[in-house]
Amino acid sequence: MKKEFDKIVRIRRSVRRYKKTDINDDDVKDSILHASLAPNSSNLQLWEFYHVTSEKLMNKISEACFKQPAARTANQFVVIVTRKDLWNKRRIFNINTIKNKTLNASDKSLKNRDLALKYYKYLIPTIYREFFGLLGYIRYINAMIIGLFRPIYRQVTNSDMRVVAHKSSALAAQNFMLSMTSKGYDTCPMEGFDSLRVKRILSLPYSSEINMVISCGIRDDNGVYGKQIRVPFDDIYFKR
Prior knowledge:
By secondary structure, the chain is of the alpha+beta class. The chain has a single domain, classed as NADH Oxidase (3-Layer(aba) Sandwich), CATH 3.40.109. About 50% of the residues lie in helices and about 10% in strands. It has helices at about 1-10, 25-35, 55-65, 70, 85-100, 105-130, 135-145, 160-180, 195-200, and strands at about 45-50, 75-80, 185-190, 210-215. Strands 1-2-4-3 form a four-stranded antiparallel β-sheet, sandwiched between helices. Helix 5 packs antiparallel against helix 6 (about 105-130). The radius of gyration is 21 Å and the shape is globular. It starts with a helix and ends in a 23-residue tail after the last strand.
């Protein structure tokens, strides 16, 4: 298993040109399922995945991605969207799931359930609830004061929580791309795109944000632009 994973990680490259070869919709859908299994903050799963196969929509997304080769030659797209605005809906989902879960009659199981319920009932609203950005600044000042005396979670502003949602979605994106590689397909995570146009093309709400547009296909012979370049590992690895 170790060798298999190492091979997948090393084969995965950002592919800029794809062959004119169809890829299987169900394979892509299965890789999106793998994406949804990624670790994420508080299990709120503040993401959505848009699997684009319509030729009409693909042409529009390619234009929104400036017709770069990775978009222009793509066979399909997967657009990963952050939905921080759905925090309360996902919070309630977790509360209901925990309540309906069959537990052992042990004190530990009951205690863990009660702690989880309190977490979703009280802490999550405290962190995510907003009022024109003002609550975030109040939380920030409060954290700075309390932080003088003990460790405290400091990423509490509205912009901080946006970052949290994007980090979770990026973890999902990596799951997706590695899964596609395991199936013999290629991908390219693109950051060069007009986010407003992509949102309009997909009829997304104003409160959503585009995390990543990923093109999919099978790499052309010239699809990878040269050898992979990385700074020396000793420059980035620090053991303490």
